[in-house]
Structures are given as C-alpha cells and as structure tokens.
Amino acid sequence: MAIKLTDRAVDHVRRFLAHRDGAVGLRLGVKRTGCSGLAYVVNYADEIQSGDEVFDADGVKVVVDRESLRFIDGTEVDYVREGLNEAFSFRNPNAAGECGCGESFNI
Prior knowledge:
4-stranded mixed beta sheet, globular
C-alpha cells in the first residue's frame, strides 16, 4: 500500500504546512459524490487518528483513512499549474473511469 507525491506536490504541501500551526501533514480521502460516484478530498491533517494509514513522501506525512485507502491505494498525487489554474492531479490505478469534468471517478 502506498500513496506517492511528486516533487512538485511535496514542495507545494511543504509551503502550506509551514504556515499552518499544528498541521502534521496532508490528509487525502474520498467521498461519495459526483456523476461518477467518488471524489477526492484533500485537506490538512491536524492529527493522526487510530484508523489512519500514514505514508512518508520525502518528509511530508500523507494521512489516509483506511476506508478511503481501498479506493486510492497506489495513487500518485501531482500539483499542476495550467495558466491561472492550479490544482492537485491524481493518477489512480484503481479508477475505471472519470466524469467529463474530472471531478469524480469510479472503481
């Protein structure tokens, strides 16, 4: 089991964690929503809970709850900029398809 961050994603997360008191890392998960069924959830991890798995990405802790991990195990997270837009991008080997807008996926 693993979640990976690209160098760009690691740099981005480090910059934001440096300005957030008490944050221990990046929290990734999924929620049921969208036209394809599941959407990624990205937030700060202010604590590590008993049901969490923790991965190290070049010194950045990536925290994922066990329920979400079954949908995103093996995912690589990148941080991309296109023109004025910037966002996390996900390469999930478990995803069978995505909606047209790229906001949700299915397994």
